């Protein structure tokens, strides 16, 4: 079953962008506009025209969770603005698949480790290779059992 990924409301997205602006030491202006315009303005200041993605940090699949489907509850919450971050699209791809933040493992490795810790390795019975006799790698009949014929060269 696929992992449930809840919708991230616009107010949370704006809060994440404002937090990142404050972290950079930039002033967050008070705009008299809709939330969508707030968000587009903040992202334009952060990334100019580069595409950006909203990243869960740590990834949702590596978090502790209870329930299934729409009843899934994550710890920390999936939409907590303190655990979300806007990243450049290429930076997000590298964090997810290549090397993570700094010297950390990428997200896909963290997810796999969390899954393996949840489901320990199942032991399989060993195969009994001694029951079947080994066959020789040489498929020719033994020496002396085949007839060798020499034909005389034709004149």
Structure description:
The protein is α+β, with helices and mostly antiparallel strands. It has one domain (10-118). The protein contains 4 helices and 4 strands. The strands form 2 sheets. A two-stranded antiparallel ribbon has the order 1-4. Helix 1 (10-23) packs parallel to helix 2. The protein starts with 9 loop residues before the first helix and ends in a 37-residue tail after the last helix. The model has no long low-confidence stretch (mean pLDDT 84).
Describe the structure in brief:
With 155 residues, the chain is an alpha+beta fold.
Q: Which word captures the global form?
A: elongated
Radius of gyration: 31 Å
Helix content: 25-40%
| Strand arrangement, major sheet | 1-4
Strand content: 5-15%
